[in-house]
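Collaborator request log, item 7. Partner lab (contact: R.S.) asked for a structural prediction of RNA 2-O ribose methyltransferase substrate binding domain-containing protein to inform their binding assays.
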Amino acid sequence: MAAYMRSMICLVSIERNVFLHSRGSGVIVETKRYVRGLRRNPVRVLFPENEADKVIKPRPQPAGRDVHREKEQKVKAAIKHPEEDFVKARSNVQATTTHARVTGTKDQIDGLRFERAFPGDKRLGKLVSITRSRTFREHQGKILLEGRRLICDALNAGANPHMVFFSTADRLRELPLDKLKRATLVKVKFEDIKIWSDVVAPQGVIAIFARPDPLRLNFANKGDSVPLSLICDNIRDPGNLGTMLRCAAAAGCHDVLLTKGCVDAWEPKVLRAAMGAHFRLPIYQSLSWDDMEKHLPKSVTVHVADSSCGTDRSEEIKDLQVNVSHKKLKAGDYGWVSTRSNRNNARYEEYDSDTDSDCEEGAQLLPTVDSKLYHESWAQSPTALVIGGETHGLSVDAVQLAEKTSGHRLFIPVAPDMDSLNSAMAASILLFEARKQLLKLT
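Returned to partner:
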């Protein structure tokens, strides 16, 4: 009962403080600062029974106070949810890009529509990372080409472009635009291209192509070729392989065949060193020696480049044959066949000097191939030239193929105290000599 009386006394005191007295026809309301509920604007106020017909109209709040309060609320909302504003801004950019692409009024270069890379676009970095890996290149079937000249060579040969990243409209206009209708064009900042470029001075254009099929490309100098093939055997250096491809294209070779031990022909370093040779003659890679003959003419003669069959080396071989005439020679006794072959691909075992029977059972006889100087007559029919790597040298299979087709070991004499020439330099000398001899026949 005492609690009930205290609550009634508090209620009566609050009503007495709120409603005082009336003057004329209006009622004056006295507000209390400590009462937070009165900040709201009531629509209708109910009075006791004797004053029920009278309505109090709230005083209008100053306009400046409401504006200040709204600003504070906006600032607080921006501080609490900054990621929502970023998402909204990004969606607005994408919506604007989509609208421009649909309407066609913007983002066009000579009738070709292109996209603008939004902030944080990772397509360029992702595709560059994929195409720089040989495993991903073979799995995805894509290659990366950088620079105007290389991209133009690919387009003129009939390669299929997937995406083209460019920094300015002038860079894109340097390409044949009529052959880019099916490609996705993306405009990115030059700084992004510079980050992912593999050259010191990037040109501002990078293209992703489908891995070309040599049988479907249109080679411009196909009619000027001679019956000459280049076989690269265990070429591991990208710069050497690219230089060999460039020399083969310049000498008018019919095609280039790469064994399984060679570096990937579509590696960026090989592409830069070849200077467009990939799109001027067919290149077949990852071939086994059993499949090698399928890509060569039936009447072909295979020759091997030998850096160790000079006069001094011939005398050493004769002395070796005299001293060990009772033993069978193997590839390791000669300097022009690799003695560090892979065990999985080795065609002979190590020589055991203890017993002759082990030698006769385990060692493989070295094929008999005569040697010739490079300027002598050796290219008198459809010819194939085998160039071995500087580290691993020629494989035994290459020498066996030369023996089978009545080929020769070709020797380039050099000055004393010099070991040998670079494999790419030797290839260029022998290829142009073969071209000269083949042209004399025609």
